[in-house]
UniProtKB/TrEMBL annotation, chain A:
Similarity comment: family membership: Belongs to the complex I subunit 4 family.
Main location: membrane
Protein name as catalogued: NuoM family protein
Annotated ranges, domain NADH:quinone oxidoreductase/Mrp antiporter transmembrane: 136-423
Location of this chain's protein in the cell: Membrane
Cross-referenced Pfam families: Proton_antipo_M
Automatic annotation (TrEMBL), chain B:
Biological processes per GO annotation: ATP synthesis coupled electron transport
Main localization, broad class: membrane
Organism: Haloarcula salina
Protein name in UniProt: NADH-quinone oxidoreductase subunit NuoK
PANTHER family noted in UniProt: NADH-UBIQUINONE OXIDOREDUCTASE CHAIN 4L, NADH-UBIQUINONE OXIDOREDUCTASE SUBUNIT ND4L
GO molecular function (one): oxidoreductase activity, acting on NAD(P)H
Domain of life: Archaea
HAMAP family: NDH1_NuoK
Enzyme Commission numbers on file: 1.6.5.11
UniProtKB/TrEMBL annotation, chain C:
Membrane topology category: Multi-pass membrane protein
PANTHER family in UniProt: NADH DEHYDROGENASE
Pfam family, one: Proton_antipo_M
Any one GO biological process: ATP synthesis coupled electron transport
Keywords: Membrane, Transmembrane, Transmembrane helix
Domain NADH:quinone oxidoreductase/Mrp antiporter transmembrane residues, every copy: 135-458
Protein name, as recorded: NADH-quinone oxidoreductase subunit N
Lineage: superkingdom: Archaea
NCBIfam families: NDH_I_N
GO molecular function: NADH dehydrogenase (ubiquinone) activity
UniProtKB/TrEMBL annotation, chain D:
Gene: nuoL
Record's protein name: NADH-quinone oxidoreductase subunit L
Chain coiled-coil ranges: none
Compartment(s) of residence: Membrane
Biological classification of the source: Archaea, Methanobacteriati, Methanobacteriota, Stenosarchaea group, Halobacteria
GO annotation, biological process: ATP synthesis coupled electron transport; electron transport coupled proton transport
Annotated Gene Ontology cellular component terms: membrane
Length: 511, 100, 520, 697
């Protein structure tokens, strides 16, 4: 009921905002989105205090928080239902989504100055789908939401984006859709090979786990093939090297609030799906392929960081660094250890907050200076001290400063993967290589900050560069507080994450 | 009794002549005539095999076929007429404003 | 419900036919009438009555054997027509599309003369389609097919002063004439090989291997039990495939489609690409499922494995249609090609059959479901084009730039159509495509599945180009939209709502389709 | 025990002052300075209380906060370890920080600097982080505060962000130390993964060990062969000692970065861009000291690895000499001090590496005092000189600023190692330990010690030279500029801290006068006693952090043994004499060159060597080249690769598809005859295909 209420309220709100006059759309939308945000915070609290020990939604579906199931479609023997529920993995992501949406909507007040009602309506529409993605427990329902994210995103980038927005939008749209199709094909090849009668995720997980005697296609076991196809599909979303090239374009062109959502939540859809599908449903295959997957993750870390080093556009820097950060998630997931997988999940939350914060800060600077190029400005700290202060804090959060959530996440991932049984002797080496990301990330962020924020104030612009408005800085401050809160007390999320991860680790595989 | 294969050969020949006309002629009217030939090739088969099988189904179909052919020509002539008005020609290869 | 007289089963066709006759009558009384409301009203009423009766019959259980709790299957004219669930299902498609099209045409033709003819021709063609849905013999099928085709030739060329329209009409007509000649010849060969035209008779001939005849409405072996000449039958079947391929706009009989859809008045394009295509498919489904049972054909051997033929056609059609659509400059032509591509998807209904001939009813029901969804989303898309034409917006993608600012509701509807066509779960198109996909995987037809996936991916690209133009691009030139035609808007928005409602409501559609296909 | 209950407040008080200064500083008098002074003063008092309690033989090692509870996995907790070492360090940090806060009133407030709340917030956080690091009872917590220390150094070095230099220096400081911390982090993760704990000392409850520490586990593994529970060894396929050496060296990476040892020392001279009180804090008590303190903290882990010890000793010895030579030619007063810092921390590392645990801690203590003093003195000079730091513009300040001069002289004598000032006692002990262990230890380790000793000894001469070159140039002779003739007077808030430290610099060495103790037999080596604890039982037995335990380990595992080439007492005296002699030689050399009323530059006599020294052996150049000449071009190349190849493939797929589309649509030629032809062709092809398949022909 709770999830349905979230979806219904947000959907209704989207409709209202679509019809609202442009002038009031922003404030209206933020106000409306505060409702699901508060509800989800309440749900979070309820979960934290009452469902503390609940297991994994896919593996121990008997006792899932906020679950609801209603039959929907029966397709040739496949039962599809409206089935939602939350566990320790999805609950924090859901809260992240609703909170970040509200903040992103507030941060949109300044930069979005045309077709506001459509903009805010689409943002809310996207929130609906994101809520759905993280709470759906039926594959079809989940896929409907999964794809449902893309259309608002496509329009949001395409209509309100930067100069190359059309290219970026269509690239994002087609690339991620192709990936979805590949994933879809891979998953259903397996569904039909296992005689499933229900598309509920727990049923799928059980069927895949017990699947035997699967056919081979071109000499490859169908399970492996499906795993690879699904990994491909989700990896594009994450994104993982070399499937990442849509991301810098999309980020750079998207308006700030959309970048925030893109980096903060949309990328997590990919890792969330990887966790749910590849690493829970196909855990055995994932264990077998752990080393190559970990290499993919490590390469993403280093590659993304190195590319960030080569950029001049602040947004592009953060965009590439997202690739780097998401590489840690892959590394943590393949470790199949409590801290590895838990840390990876925690990194989803943490990176959601920190990258959202980074993009928002860059956006606030851009709103004022109308440039994002590192070489075009310097000494901004002189004119906008609070914004710069938060920017610096965010950057250090990104670099993994202790007592901020990023450090906790990365440290836990490293701790989990350093002696991961799945990676064998390669574990310490791969982990150490991945850790080098923390040096490079410091390199490019410090470099960019030195050039833009510090030094003598200089910028060629006709605009008046002054402190940002309160409603621009307030969301930054809220995010920063959340980042610090999770850094000081990771167990606010990490405990429930670990409780929901441990059933995954208990699955076979000799662990 | 003439063997069935002979009729088949005849009808196939007529059909091919019609097809050949379609492929080579550019005048819409001749195109239309060629189509009629092909339809009549079918009619030959129907009538012949109606006799062969000793039931009337084929003959009935042949009657339908002729009626439909007539209707088709009626529509066809109408279209060719407007074609002529618009392109001042009945050459089927002249109307190429839409392609690719 | 009491047992209705069996002729009542044809009520949808009768309603449509009656409407067309009324229209013809009014035309002969007042040839120059421009009383569009009355004419369109008659047509809309006729098609809605047809729709209502068809839906009512489906729900009432007509076409379901009494043994399964239904009302029984009305069989008319010595088995020439049967009104089973599949016939009714397609009647629903045809009647819905017709209703949308005539509703939209209210605005579209109001400026033109010969309005009564226009509506009469549409209704006649629709009548033909409903009859085709029920045809149970190659003879009735052929006649009904011509009843569909002949008015549509005229409709395509309806705008006599429009060079494009006339050219389209000509090409459509010429290819159509050749195709019907091929079909007729194919039918004659089938007749030559089996001695019968009724589907069940042909099936008996194939399964028994002897030439059949019909005595007093029942199929019997011909005296002397002559064997069916399999090679003649094979050539005949192949040529029947050709005739069907023409109607469904499948490769290599698709050449007329891009031109006809582009040149015709947009409502007619929608009518042809949705309803006419559906009519072609119902013939194909019935002929190949009933008359040429693949199991028996494979068992007796020698004739033809038409599944392979449809697999080739399906893959070729998907690729050619979608790839050609990808680089079009005109929206309408892009939709025309995409329509070809969708024919390829639906052909999976006959192609996704296992080597032993199983899975046919499942794949056919998938094809049927897709046709129904397609009937709404594709008609809607073409009606949006009609709206654009009505406004005088150009035909190219660029001409649609910024349309979303001026007509957000219509453009939102169009977005739903396009993404649904692409297979995103914003409309029923996602489910029907998935159903087809399921059908391919059900029998392990990997190549079909791959083609479906690849082409869906590609199609997303070109559909989104329209969305991009409408919402993302800035308007290039001066354009002023001063009127919002009621009929077109109602039709477009109605179609969009149905397309969207088919997401939660797809279950009903697929269940009926599956039942209908199983009853064949 | 009550002191321990309040111990967390030692860390929290400065943290609160950080918050207060940051958010309310601009509404407070003195821009938040008072909050900082109060907080550090409070911490100092509490530290004294803790030290007194520890002196009473009590120690404390408990968890105070569960950071990550861990489900079926490692728990990660914060805890406090209060033993003599950390109690001593607390005292040092609190004292220096307190004095620096007061000094800042003169250096910052009186100079009307802007951004004071930010400054005092930074100082507060800096102090809090360092204190957190000092009391950490496990490696993870230590690492976390270690990193926070790095953040604070970034914020404070870059305090004058409106200029070009400080932000760059701040970046460099953070980046170079981050590079070291990278290895440290691997080490931390590795130690947790290997031992399942990062505790420095076992946690006991009621006499029972409830959580074992990693040095103890390592000890068991190496000495007793208890390796079954250490799965990591199988993973990496190494022997216990080899793997522990790897881990130890990884942690050492962080130490080398933070303590500015070769080759990661380059950030430190640049860090002089920060306000001088910050330099004092960084060099004396907080950031740089953190590295050395860490090694001392987990000394039990290093003591079982001869390789790690050799590396530490050699790095330390080399750095001591290397930095000292660079200090010879510097023109700015703070630069000289910067290189001296690097050099002095080299001595501490040398001591730790060569088994001189006491010597290292001793030198850490004395250095903290005299280096803080020197920096604050330099700060006083800089105030007087209107922030001109070039010594060649000074001269003759002795008469005009007597308090500064005499205290600075005290610090300089300590730095140079002149008896009886503090630096003499500690440096002498460092060298003595290296010497006797170098002679006594067999094999490569002994050779390494002797080599390191030699380098350290040579550095003594240079130290004396550059220190007094600085003193003479700054305070003696004639004033060489107008500002030097009329310096700005400094107030009590500058002189007060100088006086305190000046006194301490002269006397702090008396806490461990080892030569005197040896000669007289009097038990006046208080520091030794302090860190050794009772030989039996007491806190060393519970925590395993006592000197005695370390010496046993050094002897048993690393085979570090003492050797007296001249017998025990003569060796001691000879060692002290040599180092004192060299130091005096350096002082005299400086006097002979720079003591005149108008000293001239002599650096040109060094010829090519001057250039090398002025460029700091091109250390900066090659590191900058590594960053901008190698890494950046590689990144650019990867960017090109990304845009061209990776993205090119993506775009290529779409281009190929669209090209295919544009070809396929050409089939539709518009000619109806062609359509008929293709239609026929298609039909014929199908016929042929199925004809052959079906055998119709």
């Amino acid at each position: 009921m709770w999830v349905a209420a979230l979806i219904a309220i947000t959907l209704l709100g989207a409709g209202v905002v679509f019809l609202a006059p442009n002038r009031y759309a922003g404030k209206l939308a933020a106000g409306i989105s505060a409702v699901p945000a508060l509800i989800s915070v309440y749900m979070y609290w309820v979960y934290l205090t009452q469902y503390g020990g609940t297991g994994n939604a896919l593996l121990s579906p008997g006792d899932i928080a906020f679950s609801q199931q209603i039959p929907w479609i029966s397709l040739g023997g496949l039962e599809v239902s409206y089935y939602v529920g939350l566990d320790g993995v999805s609950m924090p992501l859901l809260a992240l989504t609703t909170i970040l949406t509200t903040l992103a909507l507030v941060s949109a007040w300044t930069p979005i100055d045309e077709r506001q009602s459509q903009f805010y309506g689409l943002m809310l529409l996207m929130e609906v789908s994101l809520i759905g993605v993280f709470s759906a427990l039926d594959f079809f329902l989940w896929f409907v939401f999964w794809e449902g994210v893309l259309i608002p995103m496509y329009l949001l980038i395409g209509v309100w984006g930067g100069p190359r927005r059309k290219y970026a939008a269509i690239k994002f749209f087609v690339y991620t859709n192709v990936a979805s199709l590949v994933m879809f094909a891979g998953l259903f090849a397996l569904v039909f090979a296992t005689d499933l009668t229900s598309l509920a995720l727990p049923a799928m997980a059980e069927a895949f786990r017990n699947a035997s005697g699967l056919p081979t296609v071109a000499g490859i076991n169908l399970m492996t093939l499906s795993f690879v196809m699904m990994f491909f599909g989700f990896a594009v979303k994450v994104p993982v090297f070399p499937l990442h090239t849509w991301l810098p374009d999309a980020h750079v062109e998207a308006p700030t609030p959309v970048s925030v959502m893109l980096a903060g939540v949309l990328l997590k859809m990919g890792t969330y799906a990887l966790l749910r599908f590849n690493f829970t449903m196909l855990a055995d295959t994932a264990r077998q392929l752990a080393v190559p997957l970990a290499i993919v993750g490590v390469v993403s870390v280093i590659y993304g960081a190195m590319l960030a080093l080569a950029q001049r556009d602040l947004k592009r820097i953060v965009a590439y660094s997202s690739i780097s950060s998401m590489g840690y998630v892959i590394l943590g997931l393949v470790a199949f250890t409590p801290h590895g997988m838990g840390g990876a999940t925690f990194q989803m939350i943490s990176h959601g907050l920190i990258s959202g914060l980074m993009f928002m800060s860059v956006g606030v600077i851009y709103n004022t200076t109308h440039t994002r190029m590192v070489g075009d400005m310097s000494g901004l700290a002189d004119r906008m001290p609070w914004t710069v202060g938060i920017f610096v804090a965010a950057a250090f959060g990104y670099m993994g400063l202790p007592l901020m959530s990023g450090f906790a996440a990365e440290y836990l991932v490293f701790l989990g993967s350093f002696d991961a049984a799945t990676l064998g002797g390669a574990a310490p080496v791969l982990t150490a290589l991945a850790m080098f990301g923390i040096v490079v990330v410091a390199g490019y962020l410090l470099w960019a900050m030195q050039r833009t924020l510090f030094g003598p104030f200089a910028i060629e612009t006709d605009y008046d560069v002054g402190p940002a408005a309160f409603h621009d800085v307030a969301p930054l401050a809220v995010l920063l507080l959340l980042v610090i809160a999770l850094g000081v007390a990771p167990d606010l999320s990490y405990d429930m994450i670990q409780h929901s991860i441990s059933p995954v680790l208990d699955l076979g595989g000799g662990a | 009794m003439i063997p069935a294969e002979t009729y088949l050969l005849l009808s196939a020949a007529v059909f091919c002549i019609g097809l050949f006309g379609i492929l080579t002629r550019r005048n819409a009217l001749i195109f239309l005539m060629s189509v009629e030939l092909m339809l009549n090739a079918a009619n030959i088969n129907f009538v012949a095999f109606s006799l062969q099988h000793g039931n009337l189904t084929g003959q009935v179909f042949a009657l339908f076929g002729m009626a439909l052919a007539a209707a088709e020509v009626a529509i066809g002539i109408g279209i060719i007429l407007v074609l002529y008005r618009n392109f001042t020609d009945v050459d089927v290869t002249k109307a190429t404003t839409m392609r690719w | 419900m009491a047992q209705l007289p069996s002729w009542m089963g044809l009520a949808p066709a009768l309603a449509l036919g009656l409407a067309s006759l009324v229209l013809l009558l009014s035309d002969s009384i007042d040839p120059d009438t421009t009383n569009t409301p009355a004419l369109a009203g008659i047509s809309v009423v006729g098609s809605l009555v047809a729709l209502a009766s068809a839906v009512g019959f489906i729900i009432g259980g007509t076409g379901v054997p009494t043994s399964e709790g239904g009302q029984g299957t009305p069989v008319l004219f010595g088995g020439q027509l049967v009104v089973d669930q599949m016939a009714l299902f397609f009647m629903v498609i045809v009647a819905s599309v017709t209703a949308l099209v005539v509703l939209a045409s209210y605005d579209y033709v109001s400026e033109h003369s010969y309005q009564a003819e226009f509506f009469a021709l549409v209704m006649l063609s629709a009548t033909g389609m409903t009859l085709l849905s029920a045809a149970n013999s190659l003879a009735t099928a052929f006649v009904a097919l011509e009843l569909v085709s002949l008015p549509s030739y005229a409709l395509v060329a309806f705008l006599k002063k429009n060079r494009g329209g006339v050219e389209a009409g000509l090409k459509y007509f010429l290819i159509g004439a050749v195709s019907s000649a091929v079909l007729a010849y194919g039918i004659s060969l089938v007749y030559a090989a089996t001695g019968v035209l009724r589907f069940d008779g042909i099936a008996t001939a194939i399964s028994s291997g002897t030439i059949q005849t019909i005595v007093d409405g029942s199929v019997q072996a011909q005296s002397g039990e002559p064997a069916v000449p399999m090679s003649i039958l094979g050539v005949g079947i192949l040529m029947v495939i050709g005739g069907v391929a023409f109607k469904t706009a499948a490769v290599p009989f698709h050449f007329w489609a891009p031109e006809a859809y582009e040149g015709a008045p947009a409502p007619i394009s929608g009518f042809l690409s949705s309803a006419s295509k559906a009519a072609g498919f119902v013939l194909a489904f019935r002929v190949f499922a009933v008359a040429f049972p693949i199991g028996d054909l494979l068992a007796t051997g020698g004739a033809i494995n038409w599944v392979v033929a449809f697999q080739i056609l399906a893959i070729a059609t998907m690729f050619i249609g979608n790839f050609a659509a990808a680089t079009q400059e005109k929206v309408k032509r892009m939709l025309a090609y995409s329509s070809v591509g969708h024919a390829g998807y639906v052909l999976i209904g006959l192609a996704a059959v296992s080597a032993s001939g199983e899975g046919l009813s499942f794949s056919i029901s998938a094809g049927m479901s897709h046709l129904l969804v397609y009937g709404f989303m594709n008609t809607g898309a073409f009606l949006f084009i009609a709206l654009a034409e009505y406004w005088g917006v150009g035909r190219r993608f660029e001409d649609y730039n910024g349309l979303g600012k001026e007509a957000p509701v219509a453009c939102a509807a169009m977005t739903v159509f396009l993404f649904s066509l692409a297979g995103l779960p914003i409309g029923g198109g996602f489910f029907s495509k998935f159903y087809l996909f399921q059908a391919t995987l059900n029998v392990g037809a990997w190549s079909l599945a791959a083609a479906l996936i690849i082409n869906s991916a590609l199609s997303l690209f070109y559909y989104s180009r329209v969305v991009k133009a409408m919402w993302i691009e800035e308007p290039t030139g001066e354009r002023s939209i001063d009127s919002y035609p009621m009929g077109l808007y109602t039709a477009v928005v109605g179609a969009a709502i149905v397309t969207f409602l088919l997401v939660p409501g797809f279950n009903q559609v697929s269940e009926i389709a599956f039942q209908a296909a199983q009853l064949l | 025990m009550a002191a321990f209950t309040y111990a967390p407040a030692i860390v929290l008080l400065p943290f609160v002052s950080f918050l207060v200064a940051l958010f309310a500083g601009d509404r407070m008098p003195k821009g938040g300075a008072l909050a900082g002074i109060t907080a550090t003063g409070g911490s100092l008092l509490l530290s004294i209380w803790v030290a007194l309690t520890v002196a009473g033989g009590e120690t404390y090692n408990q968890f105070v906060y569960t950071w990550v509870a861990g489900v079926e996995s490692l728990q990660l907790r914060f805890g406090l370890l209060l033993d003599p070492l950390s109690a001593l360090m607390l005292l040092i940090v609190c004292l220096i920080s307190f004095l620096v806060h007061i000094f800042s009133l003169g250096y910052m407030n009186d100079e009307d600097e802007t951004g004071l709340p930010r400054y005092y917030a930074g100082l507060g956080l800096f102090t809090a982080s360092m204190l957190g690091f000092v009391v950490a009872n496990n490696l993870l917590m230590a690492f976390m505060f270690f990193e926070l220390v790095g953040l604070c150094s970034y914020l404070l070095i870059g305090f004058w962000f409106r200029e070009a230099g400080p932000p760059s220096a701040a970046k460099k400081a953070f980046l170079v130390t981050r590079f070291g911390d990278y290895f440290f982090l691997i080490g931390v993760v590795g130690i947790f993964a290997t031992f399942g704990t990062g505790l420095f000392a076992p946690v006991t409850q009621g006499g029972e060990v409830v959580a074992e520490s990693f040095p103890v586990l390592a000890e068991h593994a190496v000495i007793d062969g208890e390796t079954e529970s250490i799965a990591m060894l199988d993973t990496v396929g190494m022997s216990a000692q080899a793997w522990f050496t790897v881990l130890g060296l990884l942690v050492l990476g962080g130490v080398i970065g933070k303590s500015a040892q070769f080759p990661l020392h380059t950030w430190l001279p640049d860090a002089m861009e920060g306000p001088t009180p910050v330099s004092a804090l960084i060099h004396a008590a907080t950031m740089v000291a953190a590295g050395v303190y860490l090694v001392a903290r987990m000394y039990g882990f290093y003591a079982i690895s001869p390789t790690a010890l050799a590396v530490i000793a050699l790095v330390g010895g080399f750095t001591a000499l290397f930095a000292a030579t660079m200090g010879l030619v510097k023109q700015e007063i703070k630069q000289v001090l910067a290189y001296s810092t690097i050099s002095q921390y080299g001595y501490m590392m040398l001591a730790l590496g060569s088994g001189g645990y006491i010597a290292a801690v001793f030198h850490l203590t004395t250095h903290a005092v005299f280096k803080a003093l020197l920096f604050l003195g330099a700060g006083s000079v800089i105030i007087a000189m209107h922030h001109n730091e070039n010594m060649w513009d000074m001269g003759g300040l002795k008469e005009r600023m007597p308090v500064t001069y005499w205290t600075f002289l005290s610090g300089s004598l300590a730095l140079a190692g002149i008896v009886p000032f503090a630096g003499f006692w500690s440096k002498d002990e460092v060298l003595y330990e290296a010497l006797i262990h170098g002679f006594g230890t067999e094999g490569g380790l002994g050779t390494a010690y002797l080599l390191a000793y030699a380098m350290g000894l040579l550095a003594v001469f240079f130290t004396g030279f550059y220190t007094f070159r600085m003193v003479y140039l700054t305070f003696h002779g004639n004033a060489r500029s107008d500002t030097a003739r009329d310096p700005v007077p400094v107030r009590w808030n500058v002189k007060g801290p100088l006086a305190v430290l000046g006194f301490l610099a002269a006397t702090i060495g008396f806490i461990n006068m080892k030569p005197v103790a040896e000669l007289t037999g009097a038990h006046i080596d208080f520091l030794h006693v302090w860190l050794n604890g009772p030989d039996e039982g007491g806190w060393p037995a519970a925590l395993n952090t006592g000197l005695h335990h370390y010496e046993t380990l050094l002897h048993d595992v690393a085979h570090v043994t003492k050797g007296y080439p001249l017998g025990e007492t003569p060796t001691l005296l000879a060692s002290a004499g040599i180092s004192l002699g060299l130091a005096l030689a350096g002082v005299l050399a400086a006097r002979s060159l720079y003591a005149g009323p108008d000293p001239v530059e002599h650096t040109d006599k060094l010829g090519g060597l001057k250039t090398v020294l002025m460029h700091n052996y091109y250390q900066d150049e090659y590191q900058v080249w590594l960053a901008t000449g190698v890494t950046y071009p590689v990144a650019r190349a990867m960017d090109k690769f990304d845009q061209g190849v990776v993205d090119g493939v993506v775009n290529g797929v779409s281009s190929v598809s669209l090209f295919g589309g544009s070809r396929i649509r050409r089939i539709q030629s518009g000619l109806v005859s062609n359509y008929a032809m293709l239609l026929t062709l298609g039909l014929v092809l199908l016929l042929a295909f199925f004809g052959v398949m079906g055998g119709w022909f």
